[in-house]
């Protein structure tokens, strides 16, 4: 198919049904016409640009993360110095929202934050089919997004956590492979990682496996599952607070048991399995879920909102690929020896 035609098709698939709000003048934050949800949306947008937490969360950040203005500025300066002097890092973002991903995840342990930053840059380069070219206008990626496979819910849960819903039955394993699935996940994650509230309060994952088929299970080799979970746990700056699985078919149970067995004990304790959606809603407030799960907002509306956000952030997502690290130089750096030895062991498994 002609590339320009594919791009046109992707644009039409990803284009929200109603873009008028993009051209309307933005109301003032204090306008009485704004709903509480609209006001929160505007506030979070401003926080995202600066990395600043809202006043009501700053004390929580001080207690849980040791975050205080002086420490924060000192830590940011030290991370920028680390990047500037690093023999292997060729180019990297140094803005506050990006660096705070790592500092907040590691509770302001600067050595641990710098180590995770190295790991993050390394996996993006070692596994480009999973972590690069996060283009919402890529035809395959756009189609998977439009199908509603993966959606960050507009409303946070009662604890302020961002909730990400995946619906396995909406991913067609006959049309798309594991690399497309991985890039969709990576794109959504990158969309969310600069949110200061999420950096502090963390994330909840809700995975609905209804509609899962054997071809879904065979998308991923066991080696790739190991590598991906290693990347998620050790190289992605996210505070995973809770993960729910629901509607797992009998032939998928062993697959998820294997995946969970690879998690750290801390993350294992944060995984819950539910037989039905009714069981799920005992632990997840149904009001924040799509209408199809007991909420009020249809999943289609949530998908349209996601499309708007992805298109708005498209240039930022693509610019991530400008970050560059010299993998050969990293081999001489003690902080990343275990990444390379781990990757080497995975390659050995593939040959066995």
UniProtKB/TrEMBL annotation:
<dbReference type="InterPro" id="IPR001251">
    <property type="entry name" value="CRAL-TRIO_dom"/>
</dbReference>
<feature type="domain" description="CRAL-TRIO">
    <location>
        <begin position="138"/>
        <end position="301"/>
    </location>
</feature>
<feature type="compositionally biased region" description="Basic and acidic residues">
    <location>
        <begin position="17"/>
        <end position="33"/>
    </location>
</feature>
<dbReference type="InterPro" id="IPR011074">
    <property type="entry name" value="CRAL/TRIO_N_dom"/>
</dbReference>
<protein>
    <submittedName>
        <fullName>Clavesin-2-like isoform X1</fullName>
    </submittedName>
</protein>
<feature type="region of interest" description="Disordered">
    <location>
        <begin position="1"/>
        <end position="33"/>
    </location>
</feature>
<dbReference type="InterPro" id="IPR036865">
    <property type="entry name" value="CRAL-TRIO_dom_sf"/>
</dbReference>
<dbReference type="Pfam" id="PF00650">
    <property type="entry name" value="CRAL_TRIO"/>
</dbReference>
<feature type="compositionally biased region" description="Polar residues">
    <location>
        <begin position="1"/>
        <end position="14"/>
    </location>
</feature>
<dbReference type="InterPro" id="IPR036273">
    <property type="entry name" value="CRAL/TRIO_N_dom_sf"/>
</dbReference>
<dbReference type="GO" id="GO:0016020">
    <property type="term" value="C:membrane"/>
</dbReference>
<dbReference type="GO" id="GO:1902936">
    <property type="term" value="F:phosphatidylinositol bisphosphate binding"/>
</dbReference>
């Amino acid at each position: 198919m002609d590339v320009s035609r594919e791009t046109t098709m992707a644009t039409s698939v990803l284009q929200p049904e109603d873009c008028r709000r993009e051209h309307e003048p933005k109301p003032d934050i204090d306008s009485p016409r704004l709903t509480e949800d609209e006001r929160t949306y505007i506030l979070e947008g401003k926080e995202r640009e600066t990395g600043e937490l809202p006043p009501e969360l700053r004390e929580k950040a001080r207690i849980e993360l040791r975050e205080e203005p002086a420490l924060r500025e000192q830590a940011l300066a030290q991370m920028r110095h680390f990047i500037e002097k690093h023999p292997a890092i060729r180019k990297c973002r140094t803005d506050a929202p990006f660096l705070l991903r790592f500092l907040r995840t590691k509770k302001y342990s600067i050595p641990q934050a710098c180590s995770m930053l190295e790991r993050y840059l390394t996996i993006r380069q070692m596994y480009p089919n999973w972590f690069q070219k996060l283009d919402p206008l890529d035809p395959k990626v756009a189609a998977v997004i439009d199908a509603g496979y993966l959606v960050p819910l507009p409303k946070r849960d009662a604890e302020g956590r961002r909730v990400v819903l995946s619906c396995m039955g909406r991913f067609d394993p006959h049309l798309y492979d594991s690399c497309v699935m991985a890039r969709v996940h990576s794109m959504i994650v990158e969309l969310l990682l600069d949110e200061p509230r999420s950096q502090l309060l963390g994330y909840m994952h809700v995975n609905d496996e209804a509609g899962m088929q054997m071809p879904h299970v065979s998308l991923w080799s066991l080696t790739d599952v190991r590598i991906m979970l290693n990347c998620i746990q050790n190289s992605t700056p996210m505070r995973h607070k809770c993960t729910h699985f629901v509607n797992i078919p009998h032939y998928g149970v062993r697959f998820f048991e294997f995946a969970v067995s690879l998690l750290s004990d801390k993350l294992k304790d944060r995984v819950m399995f539910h037989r039905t959606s009714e069981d799920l809603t005992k632990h997840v407030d149904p009001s924040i879920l799509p209408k199809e799960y007991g909420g009020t907002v249809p999943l289609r509306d949530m998908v349209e909102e996601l499309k708007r956000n992805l298109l708005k952030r498209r240039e930022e997502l693509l610019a991530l690929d400008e970050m560059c690290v010299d993998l050969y130089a990293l081999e001489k750096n003690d902080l990343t020896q275990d990444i390379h030895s781990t990757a080497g062991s995975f390659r050995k498994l593939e040959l066995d």
